[in-house]
Amino acid sequence: MDTLEAQEDSDSKWSGFCTQDIVWAVGVWSVILTLSPVVMFYVLMVN
Question: Is the Cα torsion angle 31, 33, 36, 38 positive or negative in sign?
């Protein structure tokens, strides 16, 4: 009985971690894609 409860607990934590990981990755990529034109413009203007 204990192993079943532990397995269900780990499965719920794993699915939550996967969802959080996907949201975090999308947020990082959106920041990178938003700032890349700004960085390129800055590099072109400084050089």
Answer: negative
Burial bucket for residue 29 (CB in 10 Å: 0-12, 13-18, 19+): exposed
Q: How far is Cα 9 from Cα 16, in angstroms, rounded to an integer?
A: 11
| DSSP structure string for 3-41 | HHHHHHHHHHHHHHHHHHHHHHHHHHHHHHHHHHHHHHH
pLDDT tens per residue across all 47 residues of the chain: 555 555 555 555 556 668 888 999 999 999 999 999 999 999 999 97
Q: Which residues of 1-25 are buried (b: 16+ CB within 10 A; e: fewer)?
A: eeeeeeeeeeeeeeeeeeeeeeeee
